[in-house]
Write a structure and sequence with these properties.
By secondary structure, the protein is mainly alpha-helical. Helices cover 76% and strands 0% of the residues.
Length: 447
């Protein structure tokens, strides 16, 4: 029997294991979080300045949107190839090289701006190159951060990453105006280039903690030989097949997809609701946006406490968020809407953390890059198609009708999915055993 002193000593470790900050116990994750913060701040500084730069060059809002689309387009066509390369190449080397290349693009843009040689054509080319590099850099950096901590601490790593992203966004967008005002536009690009160089210099020194998942390149002790059936299949096709044949990943894609199309675009729907039926102004929507940001941060902290996220949890949270969206659509005043907006943002953030954890831990090591590549392509489709579809729905039934219909569609689809899965799931039966035999399950489920 453990002594009272032993029991007392075990309490702090148990609490630590549930802490949303538990991934920061590992030195590698602490360094990676600092590097990610600087990189995110630099990236958001550049994105903010880039939009202003396009407007300055062309004077066209449409051109600004086009530059953003050009940078996002490679993810639609090349994400699976990028994920395949991440699976094939050493992870730290891939992340370091991709970060260095992104830094080179930023420094090139800074030089062209400083020399007054940047025109719309060169800016579009640089944006496209950045998008192509990002198809490799995105999954490489995501997996590298998770590979620094044990599997059970991956949700914490993802939650900390979300907090770092939000903090970097706030700092980067704030610094953009200050940097341009005092040092000029070129300085913002140069600062982003330096942030990439810092990340690239940190990556080689990162060491994974005991119990962390080994990357595919580490798992393959030797090159694949002819007739070696145990060697993993590293083709692009294998990544697609794995995703399509994995019920929980397909379900996760369905839940996230329908939520992205009919909900979540609160920057669009709530802006129309506040300035329209609720008769608020830009200041009122600013307040709503602030509450959404606070809820997102709280949700990231709560999501980081998860130990074993599941698709069922993601679906339940998405359905709860949809019902909150329905209530928001019925809000009689701005005060009622503000009360609903906070839990909406919290639920969405926790759901995102849980879904990302499932996505990045479910596939075997040699397929994780390609699964993230498939997901990136699907996510780009949602990002491009969701706002126009939602805007069309608002044109037809109004903003309140769109919020109500979208929320009911999401909740109804997820509820129907739960019912169908329950009916199709066979009940496990334990075969009778003789004395001394080990019981075994006759029927089970694949998911």
């Amino acid at each position: 029997m453990p002594s009272p002193a032993q029991k007392a000593a075990s309490v702090p470790s148990t609490r630590a294991s549930r802490s949303p900050w538990r991934s920061l116990r590992y030195r590698g994750m602490r360094w990676w979080s600092v590097a990610n913060f600087l990189s995110n701040a630099g990236t958001w500084m550049q994105l903010t300045v880039q939009n202003l730069l396009v407007l300055e060059i062309t004077g066209s809002a449409a051109a600004t949107g086009l530059s953003m689309s050009v940078q996002a387009a490679p993810a639609l066509f090349m994400s699976l190839l990028g994920g395949t390369l991440v699976d094939r190449w050493p992870l730290k080397l891939t992340a370091a090289v991709s970060q260095a290349l992104l830094g080179a693009v930023a420094f090139t843009t800074a030089a062209l701006v400083a020399l007054d040689r940047l025109d719309m054509t060169s800016l579009m080319v640089l944006a496209a190159v950045t998008g192509m590099i990002a198809t490799v850099d995105g999954p490489a950096c995501a997996l590298l951060g998770n590979d620094l901590v044990p599997v059970e601490d991956v949700p914490s790593a993802i939650g900390v990453g979300a907090l770092v992203h939000n903090a970097g966004r706030l700092v980067g967008t704030g610094l953009a105006g200050v940097t341009v005002g005092f040092l000029g536009t070129a300085a913002a690009y140069a600062a982003n280039g330096l942030s990439f160089v810092f990340v690239a210099s940190v990556v080689p020194f990162l060491r994974p903690a005991p119990g962390a998942v080994r990357h595919a390149a580490q798992v393959r002790a030797a090159p694949r030989r002819e007739g070696d059936e145990s060697a993993p299949d590293m083709t692009v096709r294998q990544g697609l097949l794995f995703f399509a044949r994995r019920p929980r990943l397909v379900a996760l894609a369905a839940v996230t997809g329908i939520s992205s199309v009919f909900g979540r675009n609160y920057g669009l729907t709530l802006a129309v609701l506040v300035t329209g039926p609720l008769a608020g102004g830009a200041g009122s929507f600013g307040t709503v946006s602030t509450v959404l940001a606070v809820g997102g941060i709280l949700g990231a902290v709560l999501g980081a406490r998860l130990r074993r996220p599941s698709v069922r949890l993601v679906g339940t949270l998405a359905a709860a968020g949809a019902l909150l969206q329905v209530a928001a659509g019925l809000s009689p005043s701005l005060a009622v809407l503000l009360v609903l907006v906070l839990p909406m943002a919290v639920v969405e953030s926790v759901s995102d953390t849980a879904g990302t954890a499932v996505l990045q831990t479910d596939p075997p090591a040699h397929l994780r890059g390609r699964v993230l590549g498939v997901w990136s392509g699907i996510g780009t489709l949602w990002g491009l198609g969701g706002p126009p579809a939602l805007g069309l729905l608002m044109e037809v039934v109004g903003v309140r009708g769109a919020l109500l219909a979208g929320g009911l569609i999401i909740a109804g689809a997820i509820g129907a999915g739960f019912v169908l899965r329950t009916r199709r799931t066979p009940t496990p039966l334990t075969l009778p055993t003789k004395e001394g035999d080990v019981g075994r399950v006759a029927l089970g489920t694949a998911a």
